[in-house]
TrEMBL record:
Domain Ferric oxidoreductase, residue spans: 280-394
Protein name: Ferric oxidoreductase domain-containing protein
Annotated compartments: Membrane
Chain ranges passing through the membrane: 176-197, 238-256, 276-295, 319-339, 351-372, 379-400
Keyword DNA-binding: no
Chain spans, region Disordered: 497-517
Coiled coil start-end: none
Length: 696
C-alpha cells in the first residue's frame, strides 16, 4: 500500500524539528547569561596560584583547571563580585544556577563540555566573603590573581561584545541555514501541490510551453552543451536555480552588526569579514543534507512528495554542489587574512582539516565534469563516493576539533546529511533483499542487443515509467557491486501472441477525426478496439530488460539460462499521473528507447507509437513486433521521424490534451522537447511531456 504524501511530509517536518532543536538559537544556547560569561572570560586570562602555566596562545588565557578554580578563594570572590555588579538585571536564582554549572568551568579550550567541579562556596556565600568593595585591578595577564579584584572595564566590554556578537552571528547563520535548507526542500513540494489545485491547474497548463518544457539554452537539454560543458536546464529548472542562488547571496549579504571593542577581531572591517566567514561556513554545512538528498535514489521528494523527475534532481544536485563549493571557497579565502597571522591557529588540527575539506570539495567538483563521467562512469562513481565520505569526515573533525560538540550545533547538519545517506543505502539494500536472488535467462538478439528475462518480479505489472538497477555479480569478479538502471517491460507483455490483423510497420497512420474539445475516458479500456490489459493476463509475472551492450558491465552479457541477478527497485522515472489522464498518448522512441515505451501500451486506450531505429536494430523490431501488433504505430527502419510535423498533425485532430512520452538518444529527446513547446504555444491543445532519456 502506497503511503500518503501527507504522512511523509508530516514525518519530514517532525524530523526537521528534532534536527533544528540542536542548532544554536533554536534549542541550543551556549551562554545562559551573557554578562556572567563575560565576567568569567575576562578573568580567565589571569593565572591563579594553582594555575599550570603563564598565559599564552591565541586567547591569552591561563591554563587553569576546574578543580583549581573550585577551591581558589580569589577566583570565587572576584567572579562573584563581577556578577553582582554587572548582572543586576538577573535574579539571584538565575545567577546561582549559572554559578553551579559554569563558575568553575575550564575555559582553556572554547567549547569544552567537561563537567566542572562544584565550587566550595555558593554564589551567595562567595559574596559574603567580601568585606568591602574591591578597588584593585590586575596590572596585566602575568599578574597572579590572589586577591579579590575588579574586572577591567575594557576587558569586560570586549568579552561581552565578543560573546554577544559571535553568538548573534551564529544564531543568524543557523536561522539562514534553516531557510536555505527549507527553501531548497520546500519549493518542489509547493510547486507540485499548486499544480493539483483546481484554480491553478488551468493557468499552469498554459504556461507549461513557456516555462517547464523549453530549454534555457537553445534546444540543449539531454544533449551536452558545446565543448562538453554540461547539460542546460529547462527554463523552469533554471528559475529554481536562479531563485536558490539569489536567496543564498542575499542571506550572505545582509544583517551584519559590528560590536567593538572585540576580543577576536579588532576593527569593524575585520569583524564583518569574520562574520561573513562564519555565515558562509554554516551555509555550506546547511547545504550538505540537500546535496545528498538530490542525488539519492530513495529521495522522499522524488518518491512521495513531488512529481519532479530523477533527472531533474540530479541536475539540481550538480548546481547545489557548485553553490556548496562557492560557500566553502568564500569561507576559506576569508579565513586567510583573519587567521594566518595567528600561528597557533594555523598549526592546529582543525585548520588542517578545514584546508583538506576545501581541497576535497574542489577536487570532487572538477572530478565530476561531463568529459570524465563519459570517459569512465564507474571510475567517476567510485571516486565520487570515496571522496565525498572523506569530505564529510573532514567537515566533522573541522568542527569537533575547533568548537567541540553541542556548542553551536554545526555537527547537526552532518547528522542530517548522514541520515539522508544511510536511509538511501538502507532502502537500496532492503529492496535488493526483498526482490531476492534471481536466475535470469539471457538471449542474444544480435548486433549487440540483449534480452534478459528475470522471473518472479512482484512489481512486473505495476505500470509504466519504472526502472530497476540490475546487478550481475558474476559477470565481473572485480566489480560485483556494479549496477545499471534499466527500464522494465512485463514479460507477460512480451509473451503476447500476435493477433492476425493487418499492421503497418512503416509509414504514417491517419488519426481518426474528433471534434474539438472531446475527452476520452482513459479508464474505459474495454471500449478500445483490440486492446487488452496484460496486467490481468494469467501469464508469468517476470520482467524483461532489453539492453544494448556498452562499455560497462553489459559488454560481458552472453546467452545463458541461469545468470545470477539482483535487483534494486523498482523506481519511478517520474510521475505518470498527468500522462495517464491525457486524451491522446504519443510514444516517441529511438533505438533501444522502445524499452521504456512498451509498458505504456497496457496503460492507455488511445495510443500511437512513433519509433525510429537504425538498420542494425532490425533484430530489436522483430523481437517486439508481437507487442506492437494491436496499436497504431509508425515504425521506421533507417529513416528519421519528422517530429514537428507529427505533433502538428495530432494537434489538428482537436484533442484537448495530448501526452507525449519520449525515450531515446539525447538528440531525439531534445528535438521532441523543443517541438512540444513550439506546438503547445500555437494552438488550444495542451501537451504533457515526459522525457525518459538515456545519457550520462
Amino acid at each position: 500500500m502506497r503511503t500518503s504524501p501527507a504522512i511523509w511530509l508530516a514525518a519530514c517536518l517532525l524530523q526537521a524539528n528534532l534536527v533544528f532543536s540542536d542548532l544554536v538559537g533554536f534549542g541550543l544556547h551556549p551562554f545562559k547569561i551573557y554578562c556572567a560569561s563575560a565576567c568569567q572570560w575576562a578573568l580567565q586570562a589571569y593565572p591563579l596560584e594553582c594555575s599550570e602555566k603563564i598565559p599564552k596562545g591565541f586567547l591569552g588565557w591561563a591554563t587553569t583547571s576546574s578543580e583549581c578554580k573550585a577551591n581558589d578563594t580569589a577566583w570565587l570572590t572576584t567572579l562573584a563580585w563581577c556578577l553582582h555588579v554587572k548582572c543586576r538585571a538577573h535574579r539571584m536564582s538565575e545567577l546561582q544556577a549559572f554559578w553551579e554549572t559554569d563558575a568553575t568551568r575550564d575555559m582553556t579550550n572554547f567549547g569544552n563540555t567537561g563537567t566542572p567541579v562544584p565550587p566550595k562556596w555558593s554564589y551567595e556565600e562567595s559574596l559574603q566573603q567580601i568585606t568591602e568593595p574591591p578597588r584593585k585591578m590586575p596590572v596585566d595577564t602575568t599578574t597572579v590573581l590572589n586577591f579579590t579584584a575588579l574586572v577591567p572595564e575594557i576587558e569586560y566590554q570586549a568579552q561581552l561584545n565578543t560573546a554577544l556578537g559571535v553568538t548573534k552571528e551564529q544564531e543568524t547563520g543557523a536561522e539562514y541555514g534553516v531557510i536555505i535548507l527549507v527553501t531548497g526542500f520546500g519549493i518542489p513540494i509547493i510547486l507540485t501541490w499548486l499544480y493539483h489545485l483546481p484554480f491553478t491547474s488551468g493557468l499552469l497548463s498554459k504556461i507549461t510551453p513557456y516555462l517547464t518544457q523549453p530549454s534555457s539554452i537553445g534546444t540543449y537539454s539531454v544533449r551536452s552543451l558545446p565543448f562538453l560543458l554540461g547539460n542546460a536546464p529547462t527554463i523552469g529548472q533554471a528559475a529554481y536555480i536562479a531563485v536558490f542562488f539569489i536567496i543564498n547571496i542575499v542571506l550572505m549579504s545582509v544583517n551584519y552588526q559590528s560590536m567593538q571593542p572585540h576580543l577576536y577581531y579588532p576593527g569593524e572591517s575585520m569583524e564583518i569579514k569574520a562574520y561573513i566567514f562564519y555565515r558562509t561556513g554554516i551555509a555550506a554545512y546547511a547545504l550538505l543534507p540537500l546535496l545528498i538528498l538530490f542525488a539519492s535514489r530513495n529521495n522522499v521528494l522524488l518518491l512521495w512528495l513531488t512529481n519532479w523527475s530523477h533527472a531533474t534532481y540530479l541536475l539540481l544536485h550538480r548546481w547545489v554542489a557548485r553553490l556548496f563549493v562557492l560557500h566553502a571557497l568564500v569561507h576559506s579565502f576569508l579565513a586567510l587574512p583573519i587567521f594566518l597571522p595567528q600561528q597557533a591557529v594555523v598549526d592546529s588540527d582543525y585548520w588542517a582539516w578545514g584546508v583538506a575539506a576545501t581541497v576535497l570539495c574542489v577536487a570532487i567538483l572538477f572530478a565530476s565534469v561531463l568529459p570524465l563521467r563519459r570517459w569512465s562512469y564507474e571510475i567517476f562513481l567510485v571516486t565520487h563516493i570515496v571522496l565525498s565520505v572523506i569530505l564529510v569526515v573532514g567537515l566533522w573533525y573541522h568542527v569537533v576539533l575547533w568548537i567541540g560538540l553541542d556548542s553551536y550545533g554545526y555537527e547537526t547538519w552532518i547528522y542530517a546529511a548522514c541520515a539522508v545517506w544511510f536511509f538511501d543505502r538502507a532502502a537500496r539494500v532492503g529492496k535488493v533483499l526483498k526482490n531476492g536472488v534471481r536466475r535470469s535467462k539471457v538471449t542474444d538478439l544480435g548486433n549487440g542487443y540483449i534480452r534478459v528475462d528475470i522471473p518472479r518480479a512482484s512489481f512486473a505489472n505495476d505500470g509504466p515509467g519504472l526502472h530497476v538497477y540490475a546487478y550481475f555479480p558474476t559477470l565481473s569478479l572485480w566489480r560485483p557491486w556494479e549496477n545499471h538502471p534499466f527500464s522494465i517491460v512485463p514479460t507477460s507483455l512480451m509473451s503476447r501472441v500476435e493477433r492476425q490483423r493487418p499492421e503497418q510497420s512503416s509509414g504514417s497512420s491517419s488519426p481518426t477525426a474528433k471534434e474539438s474539445g472531446v475527452h476520452i475516458n482513459v479508464h474505459d479500456v474495454e471500449k478500445h478496439h483490440g486492446f487488452k490489459d496484460t496486467a490481468s493476463a494469467s501469464l508469468e509475472t517476470g520482467i524483461t530488460l532489453l539492453i544494448k551492450k556498452s562499455m560497462g558491465i553489459t559488454k560481458h552479457l552472453k546467452a545463458t539460462d541461469g545468470l545470477l541477478t539482483l535487483m534494486d527497485g523498482p523506481y519511478h522515472n517520474t510521475s505518470t499521473r498527468e500522462i495517464r489522464h491525457c486524451d491522446r498518448l504519443l510514444l516517441i522512441g529511438g533505438g533501444i528507447g522502445i524499452t521504456s515505451l512498451l509498458p505504456w501500451i497496457a496503460s492507455h486506450p488511445n495510443i500511437k507509437l512513433f519509433w525510429s531505429v537504425k538498420e542494425s536494430a532490425r533484430c530489436l523490431v522483430e523481437e517486439v513486433q508481437g507487442v506492437l501488433s494491436e496499436i497504431e504505430k509508425d515504425v521506421r527502419i533507417g529513416r528519421r521521424l519528422d517530429i514537428s510535423r507529427l505533433l502538428e498533425q495530432e494537434a489538428e485532430v482537436g484533442y484537448c490534451n495530448i501526452g507525449v512520452v519520449v525515450s531515446g538518444p539525447g538528440g531525439l529527446c531534445d528535438d521532441v522537447r523543443a517541438a512540444v513547446a513550439a506546438v503547445g504555444k500555437k494552438g488550444s491543445t495542451s501537451f504533457e511531456l515526459d522525457v525518459d532519456a538515456y545519457s550520462w
